[in-house]
Amino acid sequence: MSNPRVFSYRQGELLAKALNKAGVDYLFIGKSGAIILGYPDTTQDVDIYPRKDTENGKRIIKALITLNFKLDEKTKVSIIQGKDFIQIKSGPFDVDLVFAPDGFENYDEIQARSVKIKQFPVANIEDIIKSKEAAKRERDLRDIPLLKEFARTLKKGKE
Q1: Whole-Å CA distances, 159 to 34, 45, 48, 153, 155
Q2: What three-state secondary structure class fits 49?
Q3: 9-153 fold
Q4: Strand, coil or helix: 44
Q5: Parallel, antiparallel, or unpaired: how do β-strands 120-122 and 115-117 relate?
Q6: pTM for the full model?
Q7: How many CB atoms lie within 10 A of CB 1?
Q8: What is the tens place of the pLDDT at every residue in 56-99?
Q9: Residue 5: Cβ within 10 Å count
């Protein structure tokens, strides 16, 4: 049996299906985004970069509730207001809603460079790396050389 606290592709599928059905405007980012792109690693949560918009926030709440996330009123208000960073651990897996990711200034610019892998809207690998570099967290700094090598492999595959 898999550990529900380690991101799995299946969890990503469930989340993408619920978010897409609710009409949420979002991107997978962080290591979970890289994993969807094919990066061979694990992570503890799903990182989502949603558009900061009241109606989009309401759609996020609807989608999470359909997946059996328990959201208190404070969390719902934070989602609707687009608080910079919201960790949600009250469901079948952990989700981080990152309305203001490090290194990302404009959702529309990141979305314009994003890719679609099946039902997954994903920030491109260069933007994922840029965000990890901007965050400067120790665990992110360890990942950057491997992510850059992965990005080179992706680029070679497209040539």
Answers
A1: 20, 32, 29, 10, 7
A2: strand
A3: Beta Polymerase; domain 2 (3.30.460)
A4: coil
A5: antiparallel
A6: 0.92
A7: 3
A8: 999 999 999 999 999 999 999 999 999 999 999 999 999 999 99
A9: 10
